[in-house]
Amino acid sequence: MYLFYLIQACSATITLLAFLRLFVRLRTMEKKRKIKILFKREKIKKRVRALAKKISKDYAERPLVLVGILKGSFIFLADLIRELTIPVEVDFVQISSYGGKMFSEGDLIIKKKIDLDVENKNVLVVEDIVDTGHTMSFFLEELKKHSPISVAVCALLEKPIRRKIPVPLKYVGFKIPDKFVVGYGLDFSEQHRYLPYIGEITG
Asked: What are phi and psi of 121, to 5 degrees?
């Protein structure tokens, strides 16, 4: 009996050590990665406030639903909604490629659909970054099936040089060159979302 408990204890210790080694390795990788700051916290905050002011004016006395695309938009949407001066409803969707593809050029599926009824309402899609336009174009077509009054897009970042499919963006935070950026909700292998700024991975 004592041998049984001893084996269990050893097994739990080994599992804990393996977890700690993985955690340390991930943190070390993150520290080694070089990130050049593009937009500091205060600049982002100022731009989000300006976007919210424009949205509040454009949708005054009009039913508005904000739909955030997970996961990258969650911080942007949270800050944006706190700056709005109009009542809104909020929902989220999650979109991914078949087979777990890393890029959005493949066939897309909606993993989490809209829960709210957006029929006869104005919908503002909130996205972290629009580059090729493939994902956004796909989702806008899906939204039309719900019969909203109108659909518009608010993107924190836009990469015009990467555009392959025309997508109308009504509100844009910042336009950026073809660089891989992280922070403020954007990630690299699920890392760096927590950063208060937006930065470019340079190494």
From this structure: -125, 160
Give the other-Cβ count within 10 Å of 122's Cβ. 18
The rounded distance, in Å, linking the Cα atoms of 107 and 92 is: 20
Rg over CA atoms, the chain: 21
- pTM of the full predicted structure? 0.79
d(CA 50, CA 152): 17
d(CA 115, CA 46): 31
27-69 pLDDT per residue, tens? 544 456 899 999 999 999 999 999 999 999 999 989 999 999 9
Catalytically annotated residues: 131
Domains and CATH numbers, the chain: 41-180 (3.40.50.2020)
Contact 89, 64 (CB under 8 A): yes
**What residue type is 27 in one-letter code?**
R
* Edge-to-edge order in the sheet of strand 181-182: 35-39, 198-201, 181-182
Say which residues have a Cβ less than 8 Å from residue 15's Cβ, sequence separation at least 6.
none
Question: 157-202, pLDDT tens digit by residue?
Answer: 999 999 999 999 999 999 999 999 999 999 998 999 999 999 999 9
